[in-house]
Amino acid sequence: MAKALRILIVEDSDDDAQLLLRQLKRDGYDVASRRVETEADMAKALDGQAWDLVLSDYVMPRFSAPTALRVLQDKGLDLPFIIVSGAIGEEMAVAAMKAGAHDYIRKDNLTRLTAAIDRELREAVERRERRRLEKEILEVTSTEQRRIGVDLHDALGQDLTGIAFLSKLLYEKLASRAAPEAHDAADVGRRVNEAIRQVRALARGLCPVEPSQDGLMNALTSLAGSIEDVYGISCRFSCDQPIRLADNALATHLFQIAREAVGNAINHGKAKNVEIALSDADGRLTLRINDDGSGLPAALPRNRGMGLHAMNYRARMIGGVLAMETRPSGGTAISCSVRMNVE
User: Fold this and answer.
1) Which of 221, 270, 284, 295 has its CA 20 to 30 A from that of 193?
2) Residues with Cβ within 8 Å of residue 219, at least 6 apart in sequence
């Protein structure tokens, strides 16, 4: 029985596209395909239906494989992307693979095509399963963190507040009698109040985004305020229209990306002005962090590289696309865009 396969073909030559389809039919595939040759047509095709993979020529009059790959990545889609082209230079092939292309097949040697497709389809399934498991683990971990945070704030925090109240009453009784132990009671009260502050800080760290639809906006507003207070720099949060999220896990991932990006801007970029922005356009939620620091260095320090790795990891977990660049005016721009429904 023929194996069903949905292929988006990026190719300006219908004859070359038909050669690909005939090769796949001979190798046992039942192919449903669509041919596109412009960026706009590819974006429309990706939005219009689901595909199993993309086959792309490298150079076309109005399009190219690197641009097609960027379109695919900007959509947040993890589909096998195989370049099928005439002879291209080794440097171009290597650059395409580094950018995210999965394989390169010469048009005059299509015998490798089926094996490459079979391999990349298997690996795509494995990647999706791995992300699913990783997401489940993160969700379980986040749920447990939120539970511990709530317990710290509501249970332990309230108990400590009660102890602080009792210690205050004890101090007042002892002080009214001019008892020397009044000083010790006051010291106990101060230590309990310090413990309360530490518990609240721990609870905020474990549960940084409150489980409400306004949680992300509130958390980013609080982050900007605390950055200004602690570091003495300008940090602003903007959101042109209210963006309410029912998914607390998504909101928490976005908040952690923002916190990491702001920390990098201050600690490594030495920024004096940071802007955090949240926006929604065309069904896509975008978090953007701009700063006026030193920009992205050619070689990242190890600790900063780990921060960028963590942001990329969180973006993948929510099906988002993370982008970073040095701004023309100086500083760094980091954005995370995710397709979703906002409420």
Assistant:
1) 221
2) 208, 209, 210, 251, 255
**What CATH number should be reported for the domain whose range is 3-108?**
3.40.50.2300
Q: How far apart are CA 112 and CA 118, in angstroms?
A: 10
Domain range annotation of the chain: 3-108, 134-206, 215-339
- Kindly report, residue by residue over 43-82, the tens digit of the pLDDT: 999 998 999 999 999 999 999 999 999 999 888 888 999 9
Q: Which amino acid is at 237?
A: F
How long, in residues, is the chain? 343
Report the alpha-carbon distance of residue 194 to residue 183 in Å, rounded.
17
Residue 124: both structure tokens together: 């795509």
Q: Under a CB-based contact definition with an 8 Å cutoff, are residues 246 and 254 in contact? A: no
Which strands sit side by side in the sheet containing 81-85, from one edge to the other?
A: 29-36, 3-10, 53-56, 81-85, 103-106
According to CATH, the superfamily of the domain at 215-339 is Histidine kinase-like ATPase, C-terminal domain (3.30.565.10)
Over the Cα atoms of the chain, what is R_g?
Answer: 27
How far is 250 from 314, CA to CA, in rounded Å?
9
Q: pTM of the predicted model, to two decimals?
A: 0.58
